[in-house]
Design a protein that fits this description.
29% of the residues lie in helices and 32% in strands. The protein is an alpha+beta fold and 244 residues long. The longest helix has 28 residues, at 27-54. It is globular, with a radius of gyration of 19 Å. The protein starts with 6 loop residues before the first helix and ends in a 6-residue tail after the last strand.
């Protein structure tokens, strides 16, 4: 899993936008928002603790918007330098995915999963800490809502001024034999559905709070073909702190 050399340059960077990505309430989204509101209530105390820990003004830790972005990056750099932060990615739903499961005469429902890689300054970061994937949702289809907070993975955040996530949606076959046959008969990756790149600076500014984002997936030569949509939750978690 991961982009080939030069592929990242062809993918447009997408940004977290709360007004664009807010959706009408559903049973799952209402539950998510209730939990998110509770986390926001705890954020004031967390911001004060972080401000004291890293010797920066509290407003830098908790503020949003372009004015505080430089300060937030300074806080982020200090946190990740101590290897104390991870980005948790939660699969929420997929919509109208490109069908990669039409193998032979068998029409098998897709088993989608979300895979992520960390990108810094335009390059994919190597190592198992910086790549992960969620469990697949068995035979769910190409449009589905994932069970609440069940399909998650996380990656470490390395130092860098321009940290992004490369996000793939993939189809996982339930039988290894089927997977082997599809690989043998395909000219490219038969499990790759589509990809996107998302900037996470705004998410880093508010650790402990999940932000949901809709990403348009692309595939094909030059990533010019629509491959559907994925909605994921992004949350930076401060795991621990240690002395330098």
């Amino acid at each position: 899993m991961g982009p080939e050399a030069g592929a990242l340059a062809a993918l447009p960077v997408q940004w977290v936008c709360a007004s664009r990505d807010e959706e009408a309430a559903s049973a799952s989204d209402a539950e998510r928002r209730a939990a998110k509101a509770g986390r926001i209530g705890k954020q004031v105390a967390r911001n004060a603790a972080l401000a004291a820990l890293f010797s920066v003004p509290g407003i830098v830790v908790g503020a949003t918007g372009a004015v505080a972005r430089g300060g937030a990056r300074a806080v982020r750099s200090e946190i990740v330098a101590r290897q104390a932060a991870r980005c948790v990615v939660t699969a929420i739903r997929v919509d109208r995915l490109f069908r990669v499961n039409d193998w032979g005469s068998q029409d098998r429902p897709m088993s989608p999963l979300v895979a992520v890689r960390v990108v810094v300054d335009g390059d994919v970061v190597a190592g198992p800490l910086f790549s992960a994937q969620t469990p697949s949702l068995y035979r769910a289809g190409d449009t589905v809502v994932f069970p609440l907070d069940k399909h998650r993975c996380s990656v470490a955040l390395p130092p860098g001024e321009d940290v992004r996530l490369y996000v793939e949606v993939r189809d996982e076959p339930e039988l290894r034999l089927v997977g082997a046959l599809r690989k043998a008969t395909a000219s490219d990756d038969p499990f790759f559905v589509g990809a996107a790149v998302v900037a996470i600076d705004d998410v880093i500014q508010t650790p402990g709070v999940q932000t949901d984002v809709n990403l348009g997936l692309l595939r094909g030569p030059g990533f010019t073909q629509d491959a559907g949509l994925v909605r994921i939750g992004l949350e930076v978690r401060i795991l621990s702190t240690c002395n330098s």
